[in-house]
Write a structure and sequence with these properties.
The protein is α/β, with parallel strands linked by helices and 299 residues long. The chain folds into 2 domains: 187 residues, Vaccinia Virus protein VP39 (Rossmann fold), CATH 3.40.50; 96 residues, DNA Methylase, Chain A, domain 2. The chain is built from 9 helices and 10 strands. It has a 7-stranded mixed beta sheet with strand order 3-2-1-4-5-7-6, with helices on both faces. Strands 8-9-10 form a 3-stranded mixed beta sheet, with no helix packed on it.
Length: 299
């Protein structure tokens, strides 16, 4: 009789609202989730009350603290702003890259068996990526880098991202079959809130420049939702034709595009704009669940 494999002990760094935990829930035991944002951690706690949640600054974390988690793998979703045009592409000179640099300085001393990282596509051409790969190779890791988008798996949301997987063991292959043939309506609220509607004056002034979608167009896909959605009008996501005008997508709809479960909850007092921010900052559970199969623990 085959013995059931024990769940991998995973340390979720820059955890946000818990995208990695959702993607890895069947095969991983998250021993701790770490983030600086207390608001993000409040969402994480609400949905995963049994997971230890730690709010501390990774820029100054010690090797002993990370070693004490005794994790088989580390998952990293570090800040993307240093590698985006809006973030001025300052790369490792950006102070928001300091936490990643600190973790990489510790890695040779702790060396988890596996490691995974997700970031914007611009990370692939960054000095941060070069440093990451250099450190991993010096520690003897096997490395796989890949660019993936939910549209590749049949999800109508364009969100291309850079992924890196590294392990001291053998790396596997990813199942690239489509998850499903989704349509736009599969992700929409049954009764959208009236507060999602764009004011008529905004539509009249900017409507032609906004990426708009017809919910009944089976070929339509939403643009990447950024953390600025709901705050910045342009270059932050798509808008939906609705009741003769346009409306924003709700945070719950964005989470459905990401693959979060229907049972996922927001703290009752958390405002709409902050929900948009956290949803836009999160990762694609759909994509990561497939991509994790590259690592030995998730085959």
């Amino acid at each position: 009789m085959d013995r059931k494999r024990e769940p991998v002990r995973a340390l979720e760094l820059f955890c946000g609202i818990g995208g990695f935990a959702e993607a890895a829930c069947e095969k991983a035991d998250v021993v701790a989730a770490v983030d600086q944002s207390e608001i993000a951690l409040s969402v994480y706690r609400l949905n995963r009350p049994s997971t230890p949640v730690k709010g501390f600054n990774l820029e100054t974390v010690s090797p002993a603290v990370l070693a004490d988690f005794n994790a088989d793998m580390w998952w990293l979703s570090p800040p993307c702003q240093p590698y985006t045009v809006r973030g001025k592409c300052r790369d490792l000179e950006d102070s928001r890259a300091s936490s990643l640099r600190r973790i990489l300085s510790i890695l040779p001393q702790v060396r988890p068996f596996s490691l995974g990282l997700e970031n914007v596509e611009g990370f692939a051409a960054s000095e941060a990526r070069n440093l990451l790969v250099s450190v991993l190779k010096s520690c003897g890791y096997r490395i796989r880098e890949i660019s993936l988008c939910p549209t590749r798996f049949g999800v109508p949301n364009r969100r291309p991202r850079y992924y890196l997987f590294a392990s001291l063991g053998e790396l596997g292959e990813m199942d690239e079959a489509k998850i499903s043939e989704y349509s736009m309506r599969d992700f929409l609220d049954g009764r959208p809130s009236p507060e999602l509607a764009l004011p008529p004056g905004i539509v009249e002034r900017f409507g032609r420049g906004l990426p708009t979608l017809d919910p009944d167009d089976r070929n339509a896909y939403a643009a990447c939702f950024a953390s600025s959605y709901g705050k910045a009008l342009m270059h932050s996501g798509s808008y939906l034709v609705h009741n003769g005008g346009l409306r924003r997508f709700s945070p719950d709809e964005i989470l459905r595009f990401h693959g979060f479960p229907a049972a996922f909850k927001w703290p009752p007092k958390l405002g709409l704009r902050k929900r948009w921010h956290l949803a836009g900052n999160s990762l694609s559970v759909f994509v990561l669940r497939r991509a994790l199969s590259i690592l030995p623990h998730f085959k």
